[in-house]
Every structure is written in C-alpha cells, then in structure tokens.
Amino acid sequence: MINRLALIGLGLIGGSLSLALKERGLVGEVVGYSRQLQTRLRARELGLIDRPVDSAAEAVRGADVVFIATPVQAMASVFAEIGPELDPGALITDGGSVKGNVVAAAKLSLSPAQWGQFVPGHPIAGTERSGPDAAFATLFVDHRVILTPISENAPEMVTRAVDLWQSVGAIVEQMDVQHHDHVLAATSHLPHLAAFGLVSALSRLEERYEVFRYAAGGFRDFSRIASSDPQMWRDICVANRDELLPMLDHYLVELHRLRQLIEASDSAGVEKLFADAKAVRDALYRPATSQS
Ligand SMILES: NC(=O)C1=CN([C@@H]2O[C@H](COP(=O)(O)OP(=O)(O)OC[C@H]3O[C@@H](n4cnc5c(N)ncnc54)[C@H](O)[C@@H]3O)[C@@H](O)[C@H]2O)C=CC1
Ligand SMILES: O=C(O)C(=O)Cc1ccc(O)cc1
Fold first, then answer.
1. CATH assignment of 2-175?
2. N or C: which end of the chain has fewer CB within 10 A?
3. Where is the Prephenate/arogenate dehydrogenase domain (predicted)?
C-alpha cells in the first residue's frame, strides 16, 4: 500500500499507473505535477490525481513513492528540482523509454543516498495517444515492465518497484541499462522512426492527396505509431542515438538489399526475403487462422 504517490508528468503513462493503483485501492493520495496548469486541472477532473501542485518539488514532499513520467529529456530538470525535497525512505522510479540518459541525469542530480533510492523502469505498454485523456487503468495488465536496477539499489527498493508493477498486473523483468537501450532501439525506437519517416516521405510527394486517399489497411497498420507524440519521440531518438543509429543503418542495408533484388527482377530472392520475414513475424504473433 502506498500512502502518498507523487506523479510527475500527468499523461498516458503516469495517469494510467495512478488509475490502476486507485482502482485496486492500493494508494492513499496521489499528488500530481505536470508542466501545464491545464493538464494538472484536467488530471484532477479525470480522477488521475487527488491534488494538483505547482512544482515537482512540492509534489514529492512527504511522498513514499515518486513516479516520473515526463518525456525522457525533461527528466534531468525534474531530478534537479526534486532532490532537496525527497523523503529518505521514498522509492523513486520512472517510466522513460530510454534508460541510459535518465540514469545519467539521476546520478548527476541526486545525492549518493538518494541515488540508491532510484530504481529505473520502463513499461513496454502504451499507445499512440498522449495526455491525461489517454490514460486508462488496464494499460499495464499482462504487459512487460523492464526494470534496470543500479548496483547501489538496496534490494528492498528493487522489491518495492517490482511489487508496484506486479500490483497493476504487469510482468516484471530486469536487465542492465545498456542492454535495455540496445534492445529497445531495435523493437520500439526503430519502428517508430520508420513510421514517422514513411509518412513524412509520402507527404512530400506531389500526388500526396491521391496517395493518402487510396491508402489501404496496410498503410494504416504500419503508420499508426506515426500519430505518437512528436516531443516524446524526439527525446527518445536523440537520447538513444548511440544505439538507434547503428540499428537504423542495419535496416537501411536490408532495404538496400531489397532494392537491389527488385532492380534485378530477382523474384526468387525477393520471395525468399519476404518468406523469411513472414515466418519470423508469424512465429512471434501466431495467427489464429491460416488462410493460405
Ligand atoms: N506513450 C507510450 O506509449 C509510452 C511512453 N513511455 C514513456 O513514458 C514517459 C511519459 O510518456 P507519456 O505518458 O506517453 O507522455 P504524455 O505526453 O502523455 O505525458 C507526459 C506529460 O509530461 C508533461 N511534462 C513535460 N515536461 C515536463 C516537465 N519538465 N515537468 C513536468 N511535466 C512535464 C507533459 O506536459 C505531459 O503532460 C516518456 O518518458 C515516454 O518515453 C513509456 C512507455 C510507453
Ligand atoms: O503504440 C505502440 O504500439 C507502442 O509501441 C507504445 C510504446 C511507446 C513507447 C514505449 O517505450 C513503449 C511502448
């Protein structure tokens, strides 16, 4: 049971965690801060928080759990601001999609004792929607959450972070920071880059209106995540550039290979590449029915 939860960043992720805890009766009071007053008021209206406050520092005062859910590049200023007000027993954790830059920012701003209270985390659950209105209580159910504990964490702090996420239905795994950023560059950051890039490229075509008018389901599926929040994804791509750029180059090599196969009218080569990719994708998602 959490007595007082401090939520910093009142959007999809922060709001959903709060709703999930509230729905289960696992939290006493939720105090919330988000940069814009309008967001704070809307979060209270929607029942995501009980008490809006005017600063991150004020939010963490007296809180036994602090959850930071701002875009990742905003977290450095949040850590700097909350340091002086943190309770010595508080669990500090976050939901940022990149862990390396968040961990570095926390280390820079927190005192040595507070640094051991910080258990970095990342729920692998979300949607393309953002803001307080996008939050919903079941977001984390049966989804993975990756924790990337640091060596200075007391085991009790890590256990509290694990319990927090398990209590809202998530499946918790642990890995080191660098490995997290490497893997997520491949499975999440690169696909978002590809979707934003495809929509951007098509939108620059002279015949763009016709192109989009005749877009089929495939375009809709592939491009959904290009409706995600631009600021959030700007932060992720820049923060994780060291892992993302080699992954992007790897993808470009594959696209170039595909281009060469098509240019050579190498039907067998194209089919083999597609068949191999289909087998991997089908094995991952095991379609209920096969229609071929
Ligand atoms: N959207 C998604 O599907 C997922 C997002 N994440 C991560 O969770 C974090 C939050 O993402 P969302 O909830 O989707 O974003 P969101 O845009 O819905 O909410 C973020 C909130 O933080 C506020 N904010 C920005 N700068 C701030 C600052 N300096 N101080 C206080 N508040 C500030 C924004 O105004 C906004 O209300 C990000 O780090 C993101 O990478 C993790 C998993 C999934
Ligand atoms: O909308 C989708 O399908 C997502 O992929 C959501 C998402 C966005 C960012 C994350 O760090 C994790 C999950």
1. 3.40.50.720
2. C
3. 3-292
